[in-house]
TrEMBL record:
<feature type="binding site">
    <location>
        <position position="88"/>
    </location>
    <ligand>
        <name>substrate</name>
    </ligand>
</feature>
<keyword id="KW-0520">NAD</keyword>
<dbReference type="GO" id="GO:0030060">
    <property type="term" value="F:L-malate dehydrogenase (NAD+) activity"/>
</dbReference>
<feature type="domain" description="Lactate/malate dehydrogenase C-terminal">
    <location>
        <begin position="148"/>
        <end position="329"/>
    </location>
</feature>
<feature type="active site" description="Proton acceptor">
    <location>
        <position position="180"/>
    </location>
</feature>
<feature type="binding site">
    <location>
        <position position="95"/>
    </location>
    <ligand>
        <name>NAD(+)</name>
    </ligand>
</feature>
<feature type="binding site">
    <location>
        <begin position="8"/>
        <end position="14"/>
    </location>
    <ligand>
        <name>NAD(+)</name>
    </ligand>
</feature>
<feature type="domain" description="Lactate/malate dehydrogenase N-terminal">
    <location>
        <begin position="5"/>
        <end position="146"/>
    </location>
</feature>
<keyword id="KW-0560">Oxidoreductase</keyword>
<comment type="similarity">
    <text>Belongs to the LDH/MDH superfamily. MDH type 1 family.</text>
</comment>
<dbReference type="GO" id="GO:0005829">
    <property type="term" value="C:cytosol"/>
</dbReference>
<feature type="binding site">
    <location>
        <position position="34"/>
    </location>
    <ligand>
        <name>NAD(+)</name>
    </ligand>
</feature>
<feature type="binding site">
    <location>
        <position position="154"/>
    </location>
    <ligand>
        <name>substrate</name>
    </ligand>
</feature>
<feature type="binding site">
    <location>
        <position position="120"/>
    </location>
    <ligand>
        <name>substrate</name>
    </ligand>
</feature>
<dbReference type="GO" id="GO:0006099">
    <property type="term" value="P:tricarboxylic acid cycle"/>
</dbReference>
<dbReference type="Pfam" id="PF02866">
    <property type="entry name" value="Ldh_1_C"/>
</dbReference>
<feature type="binding site">
    <location>
        <begin position="118"/>
        <end position="120"/>
    </location>
    <ligand>
        <name>NAD(+)</name>
    </ligand>
</feature>
Length: 335
């Protein structure tokens, strides 16, 4: 019996992610909120013969509060996407306020829900959600996640392609750490499983790294003004939600994934990661073990080669700026 909510459910990601959540047998109630079109999306999905009972909500008559009542997992793809020439940080102006307002509603109506933040810039929007929760005295860093699964999905696909066997992609894993924008995305290809093809030259590794870091731009360019990744993001978002739900269910299997979180989620694990990074960062996409309460353990980064150490060093200034910008938006808002 799980009540899942999608905020921004009528959008390019919102619709397909709602579809995929409707097919998750663990979800028994699916509430869809957006500023437009949710009654139609909900009516459409409600004809699918899976357990979840679907309802659509709009802002009038306290729709957001009604959608969130009793929510156990909230997925947030609300906000504007990029157009060619824009960075994710350029979305901050519009999306920061949207995410703040939605986080306020969650903090007051469903403070114990798992919150999965998709809206960009993720490096800043996750700190925004966390600061709003702190303000309402309901902060639990184990339950607030930046969804970076698309980077992980891309890494598997692109590496399988480079290794010459795309069909192997489902069994290829690459930890992707750091953040979710350009140089802050850190694919740790030296830890890929199965390991990189031995005849891959360093120039190929660098090209592959760049492709994973800028995979979002590839889609923005191909869509040519019509938005950014939606379908692959919906797949990734539903995969991540399913990992959380399986961990909550306590299936017994070990669930490890990467996600952008506050390192406060596991102070013991964070100590080691901070030592490995060499700088104290409040938020970082790390490998985590998930459990019934969300983040159970932050896992160490592990060995990096010199190229990866260089990537990590290059990611830190942008991450620091993005984190500070998100936190300050709530703690020191400009008048
Ligand atoms: N984390 C990640 O890996 C990825 C993140 N994204 C981000 O996801 C976000 C959404 O992208 P798309 O779905 O393509 O955009 P979209 O424009 O197609 O959909 C966004 C939806 O949000 C709704 N919305 C706007 N303000 C709202 C509010 N206050 N409350 C509820 N809903 C509201 C809109 O009405 C629209 O339906 C963007 O910020 C994009 O950059 C996109 C791809 C990957
Ligand atoms: O590139 C974008 O703006 C959307 C996104 O985050 C991604 O596809 O990774």
């Amino acid at each position: 019996m799980v009540h899942a909510v999608v905020l921004g459910a009528a959008g390019g990601i919102g619709q397909p992610v709602s579809l995929l959540l409707k097919t998750n047998p663990l979800i028994t109630k699916l509430s869809l909120f957006d500023i437009v079109n949710t009654p139609g999306v909900a009516a459409d999905l409600s004809h699918i013969s899976t357990p979840a009972k679907v309802a659509g909500y709009l802002p009038p008559d306290d729709g957001l509060k009604k959608a969130l009542e009793g929510a156990e997992i909230v997925v947030i793809p609300a906000g504007v996407p990029r157009k060619p020439g824009m960075t994710r940080d350029d979305l901050f102006k519009i999306n920061a306020g949207i995410v703040r307002d939605l986080a306020t509603a969650i903090a007051t109506t469903a403070p114990n829900a798992f919150v999965l933040v998709i809206s960009n810039p993720v490096n800043s929007t996750v700190p925004i959600v966390a600061e709003v929760f702190k303000k309402h005295n309901v902060y639990n860093p184990k339950r607030i996640f930046g969804v970076t699964t698309l980077d992980v999905v891309r890494a598997s696909t692109f590496l399988a392609e480079v290794n010459g066997d795309v069909s192997a992609a489902p069994n290829v894993t690459v930890p992707v750490l750091g953040g979710h924008s350009g140089v802050t995305i850190l694919p740790i290809l030296s830890q890929a499983k199965p390991s990189l093809s031995a005849n891959l030259a360093q120039t190929d590794v660098e090209a592959l790294t760049k492709r994973i870091q800028f995979g979002g731009d590839e889609v923005v360019k191909a869509k040519d003004g019509a938005g950014s990744a939606t379908l692959s993001m919906a797949y990734a978002g539903a995969e991540f939600a399913s990992k959380i739900l399986n961990a909550v269910k306590g299936s017994g299997e070990e669930i490890v994934t990467q996600t952008y979180i506050s390192l406060e989620a596991d102070p013991e694990g964070a100590k080691k990661v901070t030592e490995e990074i060499g700088t104290s960062l409040e938020y970082f996409s790390v490998s985590v073990k998930l459990g019934p309460n969300g983040v159970e353990k932050i896992l160490p980064i592990g060995d990096l080669n010199d190229f990866e150490k260089g990537l990590l060093k290059a990611a830190i200034p942008e991450l620091q700026d993005n984190i500070a910008k998100g936190c300050n938006f709530i703690t020191a808002p400009k008048l």
